[in-house]
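Continuing from the previous page of notes. For each protein in this section, the sequence appears first, followed by its structure tokens. Read the first protein now.
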Amino acid sequence: MQDVSKSPMAAGGRVLSSFLGWASRTRRHDLVAQARALLSERGEASGTALAAELLAHYDALDTAQRIAFLKRLALEFGADRQRLQQALERYRQDASPRHELALHAAAEPLRQELIRRLNRAPGGTGRLLAMRADLLRALDREPDLALLDADFRHLFSSWFNPGFLVLKRIDWDTPALILEKIIRYEAVHEITSWDDLRRRIDPEDRRCFAFFHPVVAGEPLIFVEVALTTEMPAAIAPLLATERRPLPARRATTAVFYSISNCQLGLRGVPLGNFLIKRVVEELKRELPNLRQFVTLSPVPEFMAWLARQRHDPQALALSASDRAVLAALDSGGAWQRDAAVVRRLRPVLTAAIAYYLLRARDATGRVPDPVARFHLNNGARLERINWLADPSPKGMAQAAGFMVNYFYDLRQIEENHEKFVKDGTVAASRAVQRLLRSADPRAE
């Protein structure tokens, strides 16, 4: 029998093992040196091993050490400026395709190639998602990280292109490991128990769909919960009720998207939700041709924070002096809900304020300030109805005084609404919502 320990393959394995052992001993505490070594490595096997080693050492760092490493990547692994300047000069002299390609290659920062090489490690994609999550948690206080974040977002937008994603229905037969993650990642309406989860995914008038990526096995990226009804809902409680009679799916005319949850912080800014909604609409239309309308019952998570700023700014246009006097009742905490006279005074003022917030308010960058509104309006939905005390839970009251809104996905107008919103910020809204604004703001046309 041949002695395999003396074979060329075994000898090569010993050389690689010896090299990696030396690398680990000499660079264990210098991840930047490891990153440079990974970029210079040409061998596929040794490159994969180096990538795995770097990621393992990164995982062993504490939070401060991780951020320090990420900052060095951001600041020290950019494009080669001399090479870029030379390529730019050649392109200015001769704007040929050859020089354009050379300029494009020279402009790419080393960070992007490093991320690609780290992705070759076993489980590399999921570990890079976790690395970007670390970055995002520190981004507000470490603005230098924006350079590295742009590279992550650029690459992830390609790697998690919807063409690579798999849409799966989540039901009671889905593996328990994934069901546990659905419970954990639910970000809009907390799932309180396994029974609560079953009520949302098992009855014939309930659906849940999630996007998965083939490389990140067992990890939902984003999911949406759907209720099949006969009308557009005005409150969340009936949809989540523990005691209710399921509607036969064949009788449903309306699909209600009442919760959309992103599961991976590392994918923030990568547009998955809009593609998820469109894919689910297509899936539901194939399964249930009786469906006639697709709507949401959506939270307004930033309304009360915005309103607090308006109340304390005497120059703010959204509120009059009399409005501010009425809104002082909000300072009593939740007590105002128990006083019918106060509720009667507050309701028209709050309703007018939220109509202004959703239709007219803009943040410092000129965007619609509410993130949920931006999401649905960018998808081409229409702001259809504002619902008073639709979510009286503590979270719903703290974020939006109990308001929820319906966005309507009119399949005939989605593209037109999207184009107008993207080009000039036009908010597509029903006449009912527009009337609330006109009654609230006499300057409105």
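Done with the first. The second protein uses the same format. Note its length before scrolling.
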Amino acid sequence: MVFSSPVFLFVFLPLTIIAYYIFPKKIKNYILLLASLFFYAWGEPKLVILMVISIIINFFLAFFMEKSEKKPVKVFLLVTACVTDIGFLFYYKYFNFFAGIAISLFGLKIDSPNIALPIGISFYTFQIMSYVIDVYRGNCKAQKNPFYLGLYISMFPQLIAGPIVRYIDVETQIRNRTLSSEKFYEGAVRFMKGFAKKVLIADQLAPFVDTVFAGSVDSALVKWAAIISYTLQIYYDFSGYSDMAIGLGKIFGFDFVENFNFPYISQSVQEFWRRWHISLSTWFRDYVYIPLGGSRKGNVRTYINLIVVFVLTGFWHGASWNFLFWGIYYAIFLVIERLGWSKVLGKAPRVLRHIYLLFVITMGWVMFRADDMAAALTYYKSLFTISGNEINLFLGNVSVKVLFVMAMGILYAFPHTKLWDKIKTVKIYEGLRFALMFAIFFLAVCFMTGAGFSPFLYFRF
């Protein structure tokens, strides 16, 4: 089940909200837990068992970890939890990839089973690992109620595509949270905003991007239009989902972390990764980069740590060489910026810094979107190979609709703080804001019902 589907919007969500608000406070968590398990089981009735098993295993390991007073026992339980969690992730997401490598290198005869990738396994695995690691560190207490831990892991708003919510950030909210009409309203507006971003921008660019990346058009201008469109598509798809997740969280009384902060206004790669997929960057910082030594052990060690983190970041997105090289690509730029390039950028005009960042990001998305590295290299070559019929090919393949949506996507990828501050001084601002947002949401619903099913890009990760 996806947020941008009629069954979710018109059946599941209204019924869940009604049940959640009419039942007493003491069973609201159980209502939300049952709804979340049903939400996940809707698409994967068998694989929901895997998530439940992970919850049970980590519940008991964290419980005994906290009870034990012997550090070797705590370390053993932590290692057991991490190996189990990563083991599940490895089998379902990476087994066939490494089996293929083993077959190619050593001629081994390994059967490659048809393994179905559980939706959201990368997200909920990182959440459950953050829980047991924080219990080990003493940053939080082990949850004594297995159903509450189950709610934290399976909560449907952020279950399948983030943001990655750490247990220490919602520990108190699981036990006690405030519901109010103001928070409900804020959540509803945030959900509508995210829904519109997904349906009216990301989904409208998707067919054009898919067509061009399928190799049906041999034109540099069209290829540039497609990769710029994908740069917008993935941002509005993923940030739209995050907006919807955060909005739904508020409707049910939760405050989730922000996941995007206008990443395309960045002027360096370092800044970009402070603004893009913030919950993932923060996770790797706190559980990988800092434990490896961060930047505390000299420049060489810092560069190695950055490379490790971004190799893992790339690989986290998928079992494919292009994701691995995508991570290495960013690690190289981060190291170069630390070596002194950031000082050079600091002296350059703002517009040049911005152009540099957008070029780096756009080139990176080629690897991310391509089916494999061979396809990515072919695409790179075509970007800089001018044919003799560029204008006609562009006019024949890039519709007015695509150009309009691209323009809107570029416009709203930048904050309009000063404009909104002026509008807020008008007394009827909130009413106008809601009316406008509802009109856009209604338009998005019309597009959704007309276009049919459109999955989120990050479901594949």
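What the second structure shows: The mean pLDDT is 89. Residues 123 and 229 are 26 Å apart (CA to CA). We return to this in next week's lecture.
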